[in-house]
Amino acid sequence: MPEQLLARVETCYQQAEDFFKCQFPRPEVSFKLRGQKAGVAHLDENKLRFNPQLYRENQEDFLRQTVAHEVAHLVAHQLFGHRIQPHGEEWQLIMRGVYELPPNRCHNYEVKRRKVTRYLYRCACADDHPFSAQRHALVARGRRYYCRRCRVTLVFSGEQSQA
Q1: Which partner from 6, 25, 39, 53 sits 20 to 30 angstroms from 73, CA to CA?
Q2: Residue 1 confidence (pLDDT)
Q3: From 45, 70, 89, 110, the catalytic residue
Q4: Is residue 129 annotated as involved in ligand binding?
């Protein structure tokens, strides 16, 4: 776990405590997030998860903006409860007032997409129907899928493609 990231989480909490004049329980922090999201706040578990690859590739902005963004979710939840919108006025107040950062909903980090195998299924109209590995496995367990146009059961062609 990068020490800089943990230190930034603590700094964000200290800023929130100074601003709101109250204590906040510290979250569990993990680096087990993949895909397009830079960070996720699990409100009821008081947990933060961060994407290690996006952290490595965008360290400065990640520490400044992304960490504050996710901490603000937990702080807003603890102050205002369940009924607030994820990026609503309470969260925006914290981003602007406490952290003096723009309340950006999304990051603009470049995300490298991994290659995904598609399993090609065919029907009577000879169209290709690419299936994910998960859907292909469901077919192997007996699930059937039908073409929306010709209504014939889709059958695995034996071919795969990389997308």
Answers
A1: 53
A2: 60
A3: 70
A4: no
Measured CA to CA, the distance from residue 27 to residue 47 in angstroms comes to 5
Which residue type sits at 48? L
Residues 6+ apart with CB under 8 A from 158: none
Look at the chain and report how many structural domains it folds into. 2
Q: Is residue 17 flagged as an active site residue? A: no
Instruction: Provide, rounded to the nearest whole percent, the portion of the chain with pLDDT above 90.
Output: 85
User: Does 77 belong to an annotated binding site?
Assistant: no
CA-to-CA distance for 109 and 57, rounded, in angstroms? 8
Is residue 108, in this structure, part of any structural domain at all?
Answer: no
At residue 20, φ and ψ (nearest 5 deg) are -95, -5
Q: How far is CA 138 from CA 33, 128, 147, in A?
A: 26, 18, 16
pTM, 2 dp: 0.72
For 24, the domain range is: 3-98
pLDDT single digits (tens) 105-161: 999 898 877 778 999 999 998 789 999 999 999 999 999 999 999 999 999 999 998
